[in-house]
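Summary: Need help interpreting a holo structure output

Steps to reproduce:
1. Submit the protein chain below together with the SMILES for NAP.
2. Request a joint structure prediction with the ligand placed.
3. Inspect the C-alpha cell block that comes back.

Expected: a single structure record containing both the chain and the bound molecule.
Actual: see attached output.

Input attached:
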Amino acid sequence: MYAITGITGKVGGEVARHLLANGQPVRAVLRDRAKAADWAAKGCDIAIADMANAEQLAAAFAGTQGVFILPPSDFDPEPGYPEAKRVIDQVTRALMTARPQTVVCLSTIGADAPHDNLLTQRTLMERSLNAIDLPVSFLRPGWFMENALWDVASARDEGVLRSFLQPAGKAFPMVATRDVGRVAADLLRQHWAGTRIVELEGPARVSANDLAQAFAAVLARPVRVEIVSRESWEGLFRAQGMKNPQARIRMLDGFNEGWIEFSDQGRSAVKGDTALLEVITALVAGGAAT
Ligand SMILES: NC(=O)c1ccc[n+]([C@@H]2O[C@H](COP(=O)([O-])OP(=O)(O)OC[C@H]3O[C@@H](n4cnc5c(N)ncnc54)[C@H](OP(=O)(O)O)[C@@H]3O)[C@@H](O)[C@H]2O)c1
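--- attached output ---
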C-alpha cells in the first residue's frame, strides 16, 4: 500500500494515477472528505489527515510500503517559516511513528541554495527527514511548467507574457508535473538505504522567450515578453496582498542570478519527456480566467 498526500493536487494526483495504472494499491490521504469520492471510485483506500496533524498522518501512513510527502505551498510565509516548521515537525513525527518501508518527499531545485529564500522551507524539510532512520528520497524538480497558468490570460487577451524570470533569453530548468508524478511513483517502488537526492528537469531548458513562443503557437497570435523590473516587484506583490514578499523576491533572484541551480547545471539530472508545447496546449485549453 502506498499513501499519497497532496493527491487532490497536480503532482500527488499524477503519482497516484501512475501507481494505479501499474496495479498498485493506493491510500488517498486528503484533508477534505468532500474530495474523497473520486479516489474511492478508483479503488483507493481513503484516509483523512491534515499535513499539520501528526496523529492523523501516522494513522494514514500505518502499514504502508511507501509514503509520498507533498509539503503544502506557502508563497507568503511569515518570517522564520513557522507554518512550514509546524508541518515539518508533524510529518517527521508521523513518519517516525508509522515507519513505512520507504518515503519519497517532494522537495525542489534550490533546496541546497546558499541564501535564504522561499525554498528554504524545503531545506528545512530535507534537514528534518535526513535525521530520521528511514530510507528517504528527496525529489528535487525544477520550476513547474504549469506555473505558466498565470500567463494564459495575458498571453491570450493582450499578447503579452510578463516575466519575472530574466533576462528573456536565459533558459531555466523547468519540468511538467506529469513527469514529476511519474518519477515520484517510480521512486516509491524502488528499494534503497539511507537518504538520496534525485534532481529532475524537462527535456530542454526554457526561457521567457520560449514560453512566449509556445503561447504564440498555441494561441495562433503574436505574444511578446515584457520583463517585470526588479524594482517593481515588492510594490506589485504587496498590491496583490502579500505581507512578506522578500522570500519570494529572493527566490526569483536565486533563479535569475544563478544561485538556485542543480548541482552540475543539470547534467546529471533525470530528464522528463513532456515538452513545453504540450503543457501550454493543455493550459490554454483549460482556459484561465482573465
Ligand atoms: N511550482 C513550482 O514551480 C514547484 C517547483 C518545485 C517544487 N514544487 C513543490 O510542489 C508542491 C506543490 O505541488 P502541486 O503543484 O501538485 O500542488 P497543488 O496542485 O497546489 O496541490 C496541493 C495539494 O496539497 C494539499 N494540501 C495543501 N495544504 C494541505 C494541508 N494542510 N493538509 C493536507 N493537504 C494539504 C491540497 O489539498 P486540497 O485539495 O485539500 O487543497 C492539494 O492536494 C510544493 O511542495 C512545492 O514546493 C513546486
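--- end attachment ---

Reviewer comment: The chain has a mean pLDDT of 97. The radius of gyration is 19 Å.
Status: needs-info
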